[in-house]
TrEMBL record:
Coiled-coil annotated residue ranges, if any: none
Matching Pfam families: Laminin_G_3
SUPFAM superfamilies assigned: Concanavalin A-like lectins/glucanases (SSF49899)
Protein name, entry field: LamG-like jellyroll fold domain-containing protein
GO molecular-function terms, A-Z: hydrolase activity, hydrolyzing O-glycosyl compounds
Signal peptide: none
GO annotation terms (biological process): carbohydrate metabolic process
InterPro entries: ConA-like_dom_sf
Top-level taxonomic group: Bacteria
């Protein structure tokens, strides 16, 4: 009896260890992140990265950033970090600048005209307002409010959260908009930084970092700007 009790105890401990390991692996997967320091992308020599124009490395409060001229500067990546994700949070540290186009696409992930996600701004004379865009099947909508303006020529943190049920935008940790939106995962496409995939609506300004997390991130855990 004593031997059987010891054997049962060992089996129980072994199962507990296996289950604990599986739980940790799931937690790690749910917290998986893609993080791009844009200056590092520019420095890389890779077949998966295409550079358009002549984006330049510039200094920022956080480290080396990349300046885009609003005319022909962009970075194209043969990557799809949103593939199959039911929910995600996209964050960016960037500085929109004066004299850019009114409509500017800063980050585009997915298809050029099909399922996709974009971080965009609308630039006025001295201000800008944020636009989080998602297209999922026949559901296509811009999350935007022209009254929520911010001065150009300053560094900002923005975030766009998409779940299977809704979307929300944040600027400097403060929620601006949230609405219901049925979303199905993006399965195909690539990534462009500094312009829409189709090479229209160029961004004028600088970008330091983009981070994509495979879950809805609490604002207290956003990148600290």
């Amino acid at each position: 009896m004593r031997t059987n009790s010891r054997l049962f105890a060992l089996l129980f401990i072994g199962c507990s260890i296996v289950l604990k390991g599986q739980s940790q692996e799931l937690n790690n997967n749910s917290n998986k992140k893609t993080e791009w320091i844009i200056a590092d992308l520019l420095r890389q020599k890779s077949n998966t990265i295409e550079i358009s124009g002549n984006p330049k490395i510039v200094s920022s409060p956080f480290g080396d950033a990349v300046s885009f001229n609003g005319t022909d500067d962009a970075i194209f990546l043969n990557e799809l970090p949103l593939q199959s994700l039911q929910e995600f949070t996209v964050e960016m540290l960037f500085k929109p600048e004066l004299n850019g186009q009114f409509e500017q696409r800063i980050l585009h992930i997915g298809e050029s005209k099909g399922d996709r996600m974009l971080l965009e701004i609308r630039a006025l004379e001295n201000n800008w307002y944020f636009d989080g865009y998602a297209a999922s099947g026949t559901n296509k909508k811009t999350l935007i409010d022209e009254k929520l303006i911010h001065p150009l020529e300053k560094w900002y943190h923005v975030a766009f959260i998409v779940t299977s049920k809704n979307r929300a935008t944040f600027v400097d940790g403060k929620q601006e908009l949230r609405e219901d939106f049925p979303f199905s995962p993006i399965q195909t496409g690539q990534t462009s930084i500094g312009v829409r995939m189709s090479k229209i609506n160029w961004f004028k300004g600088a970008i330091y970092k983009i981070r994509i997390t495979q879950k809805e991130v609490n604002p207290k855990d956003f990148i600290q700007s």
